[in-house]
Every structure is written in C-alpha cells, then in structure tokens.
Design a protein that fits this description.
By secondary structure, this protein is an alpha+beta fold. The protein has 19 helices and eleven strands. This is PucR family transcriptional regulator.
Length: 454
C-alpha cells in the first residue's frame, strides 16, 4: 500500500505486476495505523468463527469475557493497550479480589510498580504468562492480544488457589485470535466515530461561524465556557514522516484522555498540531493540571519531546478562535525559548506572555512590508555582504540595557570595539541609539529576525 502524494507510481505498479503482489493506493489523509486496523480486520479468516463453536457476535465483548471465563475457569477481564478495562465476566461463583474490584469500578487497572512489571513481561511474551498475587490479591493468567506486530490489548484471568493448569493456559492462547477480531472491530467502529468528531471540531476551530450547526452535533452548549489546548511534537531534527506519525499517535492519546475527563467532544489534528476542547473545569487550575498530565503521559508513551499550550478560557464557542490563537502563541513561545528544550514543556498564555507578545508582533511586522527596512534587515544584509558584525553587536548592546561593559563580555571583545561598532552602525544606517523609540523598534527587528526570515 502506498500514498503517492502526487508522485507517479508507474514503476511500483510494474514491479507489483511482475511479482504478483496487489498494490493499493491509500488516501493521503488516512492515518497508517487506521489502514492497518481495517486491513487486519478485513483479512481475518471467517473460519476462526466456525471453529469457535457459537462464539459471541462481533463487538459483544462482555459476552466474550463470560465465554472465556467459562472455558478457562476464572473471572476474566479484557483490556486495551492503555490498561482500560473494556469488558469483564459476570459468571456466578468465580472468585475476584480487591484489585479486580477497583479496576471494574474505575474501568482502569490501578497504578503500581508490580502491575508495571507484569505488563512489561506480558508485552514481550508470545504465550500465556502466570503472575503471582499482587497486594494480597489472587494470582492471574495473562496473555497479550495482537494483530500482526501491534498489541491490541490483553486478557487476564483470576487463578484462584493456583488451580488453573496447562490446559487453561492453552485455552487462553487459543481464544486470542477471536478476541483480536473483536478488538479490531470495536476499534474500527470507535475510530470512525472519533474521526467524525475530529472533523466537526476541525470545522469549529477553522470556522467559528459554524457554531450553530456544529455544537449540537458535538453535544455542546454554544454558550459553554471553554478553553482550547494545543499539543505538538517538538522535534525539528527528526524525519518528517516520523514526526507526522508521532503527531497522529499524539492525537489518539490526547483524544483518549480528554474523553475520559470531559466526554466525547473530540480533538482534531490540524497541520501537525493537536487541538482539544476543554469545557470549564471545577477549578481554575483544572485545565492546566490535565494538560500537563496528558503531555507527560504522551512523552512517556511516544518517547519524543512534547509541547502543550493552554489558551485562555472564553465565554462561549463563538469566541473559540481567540482561545485557539492563544494556544498557538504559547506553542510558538515555547519553541522560541533559548537553550535546549525540555522533553516535556507545558505553559499557559499568562506564563509565557512576553514570548507570545513578541511572536504576535513578529507577525504584524511581517505583514507590513512598507515599513522602513533599514532598522534590522538592512543591518543583517550588510553583515552578510561585508562580513561585519553590526547586528549581533547592536543586539548585545540593547539586550544589556545599553551597558557597554556587559555587551563586551557577551561578545568577548574589548569595550572600545563595541563603542566603535555602534558609532559606525549609526553612521552607516542612519538611526539614533539615543532615541528610545528607535532603540525599541531596532531591538524588535533584530530580536525577531529569525522569525521574520531576515
């Protein structure tokens, strides 16, 4: 399967024909992991169902959990890769422990280092694993559910008093293929709904005038106070394809966590940035804490630097464009911070107001080409043509609040050298460093030169 991106695929077609391989062309907008799930589901052999002898209908995970519990002989749960409990058995007479009770109540496996170790072991195993009791609970059998090289989830069975033998282990292995079909079908259906919500949110973010039409479809009150959060993979050195793939996975993670907290309002991936709609929370810091938690989890799962910006809270969806603009400014301010970026950066518009303001000013300056260009661009152009250093000298001087000694230390030159360069720069370019307005504009243009392409 290929995405052509407008390029000819004649050679690939010929090679496929010679080799007897089917070549499919995929829509460029469809994520690879969505294609993988659909193809895996389509290629699944229906013979497996015939062998199952009356297996539950596709999608009925609770009935499937009961069937497995009856076959293996222990209370069963089916989980997704993020340890969310998708279904659990309810057969009478099968013992459960406190860990299972808490998991069912929260539909999520409790946190704990012992659980982390068990999941790491399970992810590397190809057969059923036996695990000892944790926190005074009961032992378990566990097996990973996969489709190709991707782990779709896992099955866990409570082993009361270690009574489940090797036959139970084999039975659990035998049902993995059936469970994988159920999980693929369920995920494909969920993905379709999620993509629709993402399309609606994308429309809302790009065209706030569509609020009247879109809000009811998302189940939102148009007058609901909301904030927009923006997440991005902060990796300029990585391969573009890898960054795009990471951004798609980031969108899935953000959507998953936002759904758990606020319901199914959706999140949207637009030009490499993941946007999420956050309804007004119980406290002023609730959004900040959630965004930080999502960013940390995403960084841990994807192993790439993640940046997150939180826009201001606006009083209704009609003002959503303002909150999105704030979130975008925060991301840009985080990107432009000096020094090596941290692996996980999170901020609100109030926390990076200075950098956000500079970026907003840069956009204004870039849009006004008619403004005199001698204050900034001309200085940089002269340095490039004559191999001079007027721009860094002026910038160092202004950054140091007009302190010659401090500027010379920054540049590692003698103070008289700084004085000479400043005098010559004023003679060549015709500005006056004693004028506070000219100093301000000159500093802005030199400071924002990289953003403006100068």
């Amino acid at each position: 399967m290929v995405k052509s991106f407008g390029e000819p695929v004649t050679e690939l077609v010929e090679a496929a024909q010679r080799s007897g391989i089917v070549l499919l062309a995929a829509d460029e907008a469809v994520a690879w992991h969505h294609l993988d799930a659909m193809i895996s589901s389509a290629l699944a052999s229906p013979v497996r169902f015939a062998q199952a002898g009356g297996a539950p209908a596709i999608g009925d995970l609770f009935a499937l959990a009961n069937a497995i519990a009856g076959m293996v002989g222990g209370a069963t749960v089916i989980e997704d890769p993020h340890r969310r409990i998708l279904a659990y058995s309810t057969l009478p007479g099968q013992a459960i422990d406190e860990g299972r009770r808490q998991g069912i109540l929260g539909l999520h496996v409790p946190d704990g280092p012992e659980y982390d170790e068990q999941y790491r072991t399970l992810a590397q195993a190809v057969r059923t694993c036996r695990f000892p009791a944790v926190h005074g609970g009961l032992p378990r059998l566990g097996v990973a559910v996969r489709a190709g090289g991707e782990q779709l989830g896992s099955i866990w069975v409570v082993d009361t008093e270690d009574r489940l033998d090797s036959a139970a282990e084999q039975t659990l292995c035998d049902v993995v293929d059936i469970v994988s079909l159920h999980l693929l079908a369920a995920r494909t259906a969920v993905d379709a709904v999620r993509r629709r919500r993402a399309d609606l949110l994308r429309r809302l973010l790009t065209d706030p005038s569509s609020v009247t039409t879109v809000a009811p479809q998302l189940g939102l009150d148009p007058n609901l106070p909301v904030a927009v959060a923006a997440f991005a993979v902060a990796s300029s050195k990585a391969d573009d394809v890898l960054v795009a793939h990471a951004a798609t996975r980031l969108a899935d993670l953000v959507s998953l966590h936002c759904e758990a907290h606020y319901g199914r309002h959706g999140c949207a991936l637009i030009d490499g940035t993941v946007y999420a709609l956050l309804p007004s929370g119980p406290s002023p810091n609730a959004h900040r804490e959630l965004v930080a938690d999502i960013a940390r989890r995403a960084h841990g799962a994807l192993q790439v630097p993640v940046q997150a910006g939180l826009g201001s809270l606006v009083q209704g969806l009609h003002s959503i464009a303002s909150s999105r603009a704030d979130a975008d400014l925060v991301l840009r301010a985080l990107t432009d911070q000096l020094g090596d970026p941290e692996p996980c950066q999170v901020a609100t518009i109030d926390e990076v107001w200075a950098g956000a303001t500079l970026f907003a000013l840069a956009r204004i300056l870039a849009a006004h080409e008619a403004l005199p260009r001698r204050l900034g661009p001309a200085v940089r152009a002269h340095d490039l043509e004559h191999d001079t250093t007027y721009a860094p000298t002026i910038l160092a001087y202004l950054d140091a609040n007009s302190d010659i000694a401090a500027a010379s230390n920054r540049l590692s030159v003698h103070p008289n050298t700084v004085r000479y360069r400043l005098v010559r720069a004023q003679e060549i370019f015709g500005f006056d460093l004693s004028d506070p307005d000219q100093r301000l504009v000159l500093w802005l243009r030199l400071r924002l030169g990289d953003q403006l392409g100068w």
